[in-house]
Structures are given as structure tokens and as C-alpha cells.
Amino acid sequence: GAGVSQSPSNKVTEKGKDVELRCDPISGHTALYWYRQSLGQGLEFLIYFQGNSAPDKSGLPSDRFSAERTGGSVSTLTIQRTQQEDSAVYLCASSLRQLGALRTQYFGPGTRLTVL
Amino acid sequence: AQSVTQPDIHITVSEGASLELRCNYSYGATPYLFWYVQSPGQGLQLLLKYFSGDTLVQGIKGFEAEFKRSQSSFNLRKPSVHWSDAAEYFCAVGTPNDYKLSFGAGTTVTVRA
């Protein structure tokens, strides 16, 4: 079946502009995650959605970052007033429901964000 | 909190030679362990995972990894490397009570002809 898809694949924006990144999880996966991969650093967790539960936003680096998940499927990560340090690859992953056991996360191809 | 260390930033190996990538984790109990591969411009692809049971795990593309509790390690191996194995490899750890994966910094593998 189809994997996790993300759009756009590349985004170049000017400092101070807002951007929206989209993630389409694997059908049937109720858990969705966003990670950020910055140059020279590993992947860092940003946010986690599970069904209709309140998301875990503990990894969001600042209040300029927000995310929503509509209808329990597609998710949008929004970065307001972008800064150059926001330049990174933003990866989305999905998994089956986390229920007392860790589920395998499957990753999308990522969105490469460049802030000029 | 759990953490992962990949001691080797970059490894160069000849095509046909064996490959071993090191991964050490820090966690008080038995963790869930993963190896992912990322080709240039691509997302992360799961190579293999360890949750419990047999400590030698077989994955895709001819890779295997061995969980060694005494050494807190989960090293990835391949007996004979192909040019297409050139990529960045990430080890990750998760725990039963935390869905967030902690990733190592990655090891870049270069394959020379």
C-alpha cells in the first residue's frame, strides 16, 4: 500500500514568512509524528498525535511552531515568522496505535525547508 | 531518558567487503531498537527492529543486527556491501512507555569500487 507522503518536497521561503508542511499518513495508522532533522544534528521529536487525544507538543522548539491533524488523518505543521535556524528537513512518520507497546514508525520522504 | 550513541560519523568500505556499524544505547531496561537507512534526498527506511526474543535480528537488504544487553549495543552488520548501500544509517531507541524515538547522530557509509 501507499506509504507516508509529504508535501512539498522542497520549500524555500524568506525570513519572517509563514510556511505550512503537509503529511499524509499510511491508511489505518492512527498515530502520527513530526521530527526535525537539522544539518549536523540527529532527528529531534517535535509533536505526536494519537487519534482524538490531545497531542504531545513537548518537542516543539518555540510557539512559532504549531501542528494540527484534521479528521484523524492529514496533518499540517505550521511555522510562523520563519527564522534561518528553522532550515531543516521535516520528517513525518505514522504508526498503528500506541497502546502499551511501542509501534514501528514509518517515515515519509520529508520536506526540506530553506529559510533565506 | 533513553539515548543513543553512534560512535562512527563516517565509514568508507570497499564494495564486497563486510560492514559493521556501531550503536550503543542508554536505558535501564530492555529497549526497543531500530535501524533506519536514509539515502540522499530520501526519507528514513526501516531496516530492522528488535523488540524481544532472539537477539540476532534479520532485516531487509541483507542486513542483520545483534542485541547485546551486557554491552548495551545493537550493532548493524552486512557480510558483503553493495554500492547501493551508500547512505546514512540511524540507530534509534524507544521504550514501552514512550512513543518518541531517540535517534543517534547517524553514520554515513561510503562505498568505493
Would you kindly provide a written description of the structure presented here, covering whatever features stand out?
The complex is a heterodimer of chains A (116) and B (113). Chain A is mainly beta and 116 residues long. Chain A has no helices and 10 strands. In chain A, strands 2, 4, 5, 8, 9 and 10 form a 6-stranded mixed sheet that branches. In chain A, strands 1-3-7-6 form a 4-stranded antiparallel sheet, with no helix packed on it. Chain B has 113 residues and is mainly beta. Chain B is built from no helices and 12 strands. In chain B, the strands form 3 sheets. In chain B, strands 2, 5, 6, 10, 11 and 12 form a 6-stranded mixed sheet that branches. In chain B, strands 3-9-8-7 form a 4-stranded antiparallel sheet, with no helix packed on it. The mean pLDDT of chain B is 92.
The succession of helices and strands of chain B, N to C, reads EEEEEEEEEEEE
Number of helical segments with 4 or more residues of chain B: 0
Strand content of chain B: over 45%
Interface with most residues: A-B, 27 and 25 residues
Structural class call of chain B reads mainly beta
Percentage of residues in strands of chain A: over 45%
Largest β-sheet summary of chain B: 6 strands, mixed
Layout of helices and strands, plus pairs?
The complex is a heterodimer of chains A (116) and B (113).
Chain A: E1 5-7, E2 10-13, E3 19-24, E4 31-37, E5 43-50, E6 65-69, E7 75-79, E8 88-95, E9 106-107, E10 111-115
Parallel strand pairs in A: 2-10
Antiparallel strand pairs in A: 1-3, 3-7, 4-5, 4-8, 6-7, 8-9, 8-10
Chain B: E1 3-5, E2 10-14, E3 19-21, E4 24-26, E5 32-38, E6 44-50, E7 56-58, E8 64-68, E9 73-78, E10 87-95, E11 98-103, E12 107-112
Parallel strand pairs in B: 2-12
Antiparallel strand pairs in B: 1-4, 3-9, 5-6, 5-10, 7-8, 8-9, 10-11, 10-12
Question: How is this structure best summarized?
Answer:
The complex is a heterodimer of chains A (116) and B (113). Chain A is mainly β and 116 residues long.
